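[READ THE FOLD]
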Amino acid sequence: MSVRKQKSLVLILARELATNLATPIYIADAERRETPIGDWVKELAPETLDGKPLDREEMPGGIAFAERRPAHGTMRVTGLDGQKRTVETTALPLFGPDGEFHGIMAIFWELH
């Protein structure tokens, strides 16, 4: 199987999982052809629980993308309705059977 087809399969399977879970999930491929993580950071305005702004590199998704390792964290984000919400985020790097990095999946859980 070609590398391009393996990349497509990894991302297809990640998206299939995302459609079956009842929680927000962000998937970014390694080539960043979709909405860039930086755009999501601007939209969500993530911050620590103390109100300090978080850079992309400090968020679990940024860590998973840059360091190619799972990451988990709690943060506050701004929802589309303008309300701040406390969420936990787990981000996982996506690797294919070829061992190559194909992107990340970040899963969000709102805390009440």
